[in-house]
TrEMBL record:
<dbReference type="GO" id="GO:0008270">
    <property type="term" value="F:zinc ion binding"/>
</dbReference>
<dbReference type="InterPro" id="IPR013083">
    <property type="entry name" value="Znf_RING/FYVE/PHD"/>
</dbReference>
<dbReference type="GO" id="GO:0031624">
    <property type="term" value="F:ubiquitin conjugating enzyme binding"/>
</dbReference>
<keyword id="KW-0862">Zinc</keyword>
<dbReference type="InterPro" id="IPR001841">
    <property type="entry name" value="Znf_RING"/>
</dbReference>
<dbReference type="GO" id="GO:0016567">
    <property type="term" value="P:protein ubiquitination"/>
</dbReference>
<dbReference type="Pfam" id="PF21362">
    <property type="entry name" value="Sina_RING"/>
</dbReference>
<dbReference type="InterPro" id="IPR004162">
    <property type="entry name" value="SINA-like_animal"/>
</dbReference>
<dbReference type="GO" id="GO:0005737">
    <property type="term" value="C:cytoplasm"/>
</dbReference>
<dbReference type="InterPro" id="IPR049548">
    <property type="entry name" value="Sina-like_RING"/>
</dbReference>
<keyword id="KW-0808">Transferase</keyword>
<protein>
    <recommendedName>
        <fullName>RING-type E3 ubiquitin transferase</fullName>
        <ecNumber>2.3.2.27</ecNumber>
    </recommendedName>
</protein>
<keyword id="KW-0863">Zinc-finger</keyword>
<dbReference type="GO" id="GO:0061630">
    <property type="term" value="F:ubiquitin protein ligase activity"/>
</dbReference>
<feature type="domain" description="SIAH-type">
    <location>
        <begin position="121"/>
        <end position="182"/>
    </location>
</feature>
<keyword id="KW-0833">Ubl conjugation pathway</keyword>
<feature type="domain" description="RING-type">
    <location>
        <begin position="71"/>
        <end position="106"/>
    </location>
</feature>
Length: 331
């Protein structure tokens, strides 16, 4: 249960006035973190004017009004257009499309809209719907926040490969990976691997997790020579709440590492995100929106680089400076 007394900053309620440090909402512009701090310091008066006190009574009243917007079917706050029956019971548009009758009083549904509630909707504060998050703001701000919220529910990225049933949020995912999948997780941007008996095996599969600058990446690769002569690779940026995930990665195979002028090596793949950032700057929440690369190579082309039937390969990941920033909006 959220504490009811605090300060409202752009619709946000701080639960502890003494411990909370406020700053102005970050502007939607291309500023690095240092430039942004200078921007805030020079506009301190503006920041102070944006902080307005809110009493416990006002907060409780606002929360009671917000509950009246809950849909009786999905139990989520309704958003315009808000539909209602002849007895003024409201229902969200998505549920209204699926219902034949009003779920509250069972009267036939109508095409009537609750215009009074729609006009009040932008003025009411709604809490974040994800468990554990205390963010509260107007509907438009809450909608943006939920898309980037670190409490967004996720499943284990190694769940399919290792039958892991873990479910949690982005905030606890790293701890889960460290505790339950330590052999598959690497907290570094550059790693050298050895695929044993690569040359003699007709089937192999690998699932590797990298954590670089707080970002989580997953490399899946493998082959089944009975089905295809190609080795398939996939690199995925899982994300951690920041909508901008831009990165470069390089995959190299070689007889030995570190590579010198006498080493036989082959740069298998190099991404070029910085040259085409617009194509790879994606809000990665759903599975089909994850920032990923898919590529393949013929098995026979990799065999000459084997060392005693083993294949040595290195993975290097570089996260762009934009991706490491803490902006709340995509630019």
């Amino acid at each position: 249960m959220r504490k009811a007394l605090g300060l409202k900053v752009e619709g946000r309620v701080a639960t502890n006035v003494k411990d909370e440090h406020f700053s102005a909402p970050k502007p939607i512009m291309n500023l690095d973190r240092r430039t942004y701090e200078i921007y805030v310091n020079r506009n301190l008066d503006i920041v102070q004017k944006m902080i307005t006190p809110i009493t416990k009574k006002e907060y409780e009243l606002e929360q009671q009004i917000a509950k009246e917007y809950d849909c009786p079917v999905c139990f989520q706050p309704t958003q315009p257009p808000i539909m209602m029956c002849s007895n003024s019971h409201i229902i969200c548009l998505n549920c209204w499309k699926q219902c034949i009758k009003c779920p509250t009083c069972r009267t036939p549904k109508t095409f009537t809209r609750a215009f009074a509630l729609e006009r009040l909707h932008p003025l009411i504060s709604f809490p974040c719907s994800f468990e554990g998050c205390s963010y509260t703001a107007t509907a438009s701000h809450t909608g943006i926040h939920e898309h980037f919220c670190p409490y967004f529910p996720v499943r284990c990225p190694l769940g399919d490969a290792y039958e892991c049933q873990w479910e949690g949020n982005m905030k606890t995912l790293q701890n889960h990976l460290k505790e339950c999948h330590p052999d598959n997780v690497f907290f570094t941007s550059h790693v050298v691997f050895r695929s044993r008996l690569f040359k003699r095996s007709h089937i192999k599969s690998y699932n590797i997790i990298f954590v670089v600058n707080g970002r989580i990446f997953k490399l899946d690769w493998g082959y089944d020579l009975l089905k295809s002569p190609k080795v398939r690779f996939r690199m995925v940026a899982i994300g951690n709440g920041n909508p901008i995930v831009m990165y470069n990665f390089t995959l190299v195979v070689a007889h030995s590492f570190p590579i010198d002028v006498w080493s036989k090596s082959f740069k298998l793949y190099t991404s070029h995100v910085k040259q085409s950032s617009n194509n790879y700057s994606v809000m990665n929440r759903r599975e089909d929106e994850q920032v990923q690369y898919n590529f393949d190579e013929f098995f026979g082309r990799l065999v000459p680089f084997c060392d005693n039937n083993d294949l040595l390969y290195s993975v290097n990941i570089e996260v762009s400076h934009i991706s490491m920033s803490h902006r709340n909006f995509r630019i």
